[in-house]
Amino acid sequence: xxxxxxxxxxxxxxxxxxxxxxxxxxxxxxxxxxxxxxxxxxxxxxxxxxxxxxxxxxxxxxxxxxxxxxxxxxxxxxxxxxxxxxxxxxxxxxxxxxxxxxxxxxxxxxxxxxxxxxxxxxxxxxxxxxxxxxxxxxxxxxxxxxxxxxxxxxxxxxxxxxxxxxxxxxxxxxxxxxxxxxxxxxxxxxxxxxxxxxxxxxxxxxxxxxxxxxxxxxxxxxxxxxxxxxxxxxxxxxxxxxxxxxxxxxxxxxxxxxxxxxxxxxxxxxxxxxxxxxxxxxxxxx
Length: 286
Known about the structure:
286 residues; alpha/beta; Arc Repressor Mutant, subunit A; Dna Topoisomerase Vi A Subunit, Chain: A, domain 2; 6-stranded mixed beta sheet; 3-stranded antiparallel beta sheet; 11 helices; 36% helix
């Protein structure tokens, strides 16, 4: 059983001597408090109010049933955005009374060392097979301005960036994963001057992800990556089922904002196929 922040605020008012309309305290929790004499229900004509005769009794009830020793502290701490599970245990004996994100941020990868700073100190992101760098406190993570940031939509492509060097020959490329999906990545990108390239699927869904999650926030700094020979790739490896499944949610051509996207849209529509980006992972040489 958990005590909501809204009810906690009302109970605090009651402990300060207020009488609240019964309609504002019509919860199963407060009804039990009335039944057990912790709160008092008063009727005056048709008007019903709830008040507290003994605040010490209410305090003991909250501590015994909810682990809340200090109601005012419980309220003030609960409104903090960066509340940790440790703090929650201390104020309410429950690490899950408030939904929080234990992890924020995103993964980064590269195929050549990348120079960045983290909270003002130099940090080099170095590639190592099978190991990626997780940036949690992304607010303090700053790549050099000349580094191109490449957002990768699918996990396999992100994992094997070294097998796709031919697509992005420049060495100063920092790859970022769209997953875990949240607003952290675009929030971070919005505060940087760096060029952003979105590397996603070549279908209507991939275009929508780019337009709705990135282009609308980053404007001219963002562009959708389209490989050379995309027409031949769509013809040889494109999937008609992708096209049919996504047709109802296809973006309009006038919403695309980039000549490359308009060309891709025309190819998808003319061939009636979509293409997943995994096709661009080069085979491992044996």
